[in-house]
Amino acid sequence: MSNAAAEHAPNPASADGIAARARGLTKAYGSGETTVLALDSVDVDIARGRFTAVMGPSGSGKSTLMHCLAGLDNVSAGQVWLGDTEITGLRERELTRLRRDRIGFMFQSFNLIPTLNAAENITLPMDIAGKKPDEKWLDQVIDTLGLRDRLKHRPSQLSGGQQQRVACARALASRPELIFADEPTGNLDSRAGLEVLGFLREAVDQLGQTVVMVTHDPGAAAHSDLVLFLGDGRIVDEMERPTAEAVLERMRLFAGGDPQTPGFDVVRGRSDGSGPPPGAIPTTGNPSPEEP
Ligand SMILES: Nc1ncnc2c1ncn2[C@@H]1O[C@H](COP(=O)(O)OP(=O)(O)OP(=O)(O)O)[C@@H](O)[C@H]1O
């Protein structure tokens, strides 16, 4: 395992405009012969006020990267900062507070509480923290997400897209420094997926939020400002102002046209005319103004 934070740039914290940062981030699962190196000495900066997508074949380390940046998983070596705070080395209680107060999460499976209505779900993390929401901000979030007339509905009374909008509002409610979204459109049909991506885009452009999204879908990644490509636990490439076509082409190159490559199915489904994988986001509506 090549690593040692000392090999990398010294204390990079406090750089303005950086929401999160990792240096020499290494994560190994298991030990001995069964060790899996999920992240191999990753250096990454997540820019504040931008929408960053993380792509790569299955098993390339996307979720592990997100979990380590968000303090959901401990690291094997290296350092991670959220803003000025080095989170590697924090105790579990401090990490819990940091996640609750400074990070918003969205998951593929929405993770709403079925017995609470939309309004209660949105403010639940703040209620648990004993914090009063900033009502003006909350109103803005609810209106931006078009949830005003759904606030009294329970999750079972909402469509998948509406449920993910509630999850998005919950992630935004405390005005976090960073929102992590793990395959937020994975359980949605393409129309609802496009809607949620549009809201994440608005959260960045109009509300000044910072979003990091893990996705398999080039159409979803095209809504971001920057795509980071992971391969075998390393960042192997990045793309500014992505388009779905350019991302797809890059993924195809990584897969090397080899159907045995994990994740190739996703790429092939969009490149050989056999149609998109289920839930894939159409390339129409791509907000990127420029071809790369
Ligand atoms: N808890 C764990 N125990 C053992 N190995 C793990 C664990 N979690 C992840 N891994 C391994 O680490 C590697 C990276 O996994 P990770 O889930 O980060 O990949 P991913 O890019 O998110 O994959 P996918 O697109 O399939 O979700 C894989 O080889 C995976 O098998």
Automatic annotation (TrEMBL):
Residues 283-292 have a biased composition (Polar residues). It comes from the Bacteria. Transmembrane segments: none annotated. Residues 20-257 form the ABC transporter domain. InterPro entries: AAA+_ATPase, ABC_transporter-like_ATP-bd, ABC_transpr_LolD-like, MacB-like_ATP-bd, P-loop_NTPase. The keyword Transit peptide does not apply. The keyword Electron transport does not apply. GO terms for cellular component: membrane protein complex; plasma membrane. Residues 257-292 are annotated as: Disordered. Keywords: ATP-binding, Nucleotide-binding, Transport. It holds the Pfam family ABC_tran. GO terms for molecular function: ATP binding; ATP hydrolysis activity; transmembrane transporter activity. This is ABC transporter ATP-binding protein. It comes from Streptomyces cyaneochromogenes. The lineage of its organism: Bacteria, Bacillati, Actinomycetota, Actinomycetes, Kitasatosporales.
